[in-house]
Amino acid sequence: MSSEPRGGRSAQLKHTGLRPGWTTGACATAATTAAYTALLTGEFPDPVTITLPKGQTPSFALAAEELTDGHAMAGIVKDAGDDPDVTHGALVRVTVRPLPAGAGTVFRAGPGVGTVTRPGLPLPVGEPAVNPVPRQMMRDHVARVAERYGGSGDVEITISVDHGEEIARSTWNPRLGILGGLSILGTTGIVVPYSCSAWIDSIRRGVDVARAAGRTHVAGCTGSTSEKTVVAEYGLPEDALLDMGDFAGAVLKYLRRHPVDRLTVCGGFAKLSKLAVGHLDLHSARSQVDKGFLAELARRGGADEALAAEVAAANTGLAALRICQAAGVPLGDLVATAARDEALSVLRGAPVAVDVLCIDRAGAVVGRSAVA
Q1: Does the reported pTM lie above 0.90?
Q2: Does domain 21-191 have CATH number 3.30.540.10?
């Protein structure tokens, strides 16, 4: 069973035909509401309806429930809609136990939910990885249930995710110092398909953790190969490596507001040629290699018109690079320098020195800029 709005599946997004889903924070809030209601009344509401921060009122079907004298547990299967979310289909369980009057709402990490072990995140070290907005959603719903059924609202909320520790290995959590499982996330309660908001949020948290650890040199990398290259070149520790993916703009814009002394951008030659021409999203579906631009750079590097025409007609960016390498034209360095200059323009004078490394598919450096 999956969590769905009352009356059926969630509405498709306008213009895309894609179905949105629910965050782990929304699922945990619904499970908390159902469990606390059962604790006070002896009955689980199924489906259970909650109110999201922007006023939507989805309903969720229960996939698991348990009631004893001392606690109630409800479980909801996360439905991420049409987003390729690694937590889609995960069973989010919440166990609610009563606490003495005045104790308030206490959060615990159960199996599959991580614990914060490094500073720099929006939660103190030692706290369960349940983000501030989901915490507030759960507190608000506990208060509403308490008011309706005569409870005190003083409860312990333990959140678990079946197989969460295994799923978390596919996320940024281990690198961010969130150990033991997943984070309970969400600011609106809704997962927008392919919005990539979770990835961009992870980039921001990566910068926060690096700054809190005192790192003065970080690297934005497009993938694991570029990470290995940066480590070999500079010996950077894991918490200084930002899994930038295609989101160069997200790294640069966040560092503009939260600077570090130095940023190295490392990625495939073709991807970084897109940054060089001004694209901040490097995904192949949203930006293309501009071989005319590469031909112009080749001219600046000494290529004659015949060679520039070959570059412009090349099948791929890497093919254009190979043509120039054979002719002794430093196209890799020119692209790296142009990408660095574009990064500096996005930083808008923030006190961040930048250098760029372009690599081939094997991770060999095929272009580099000076630090500026």
Answers
A1: no
A2: no
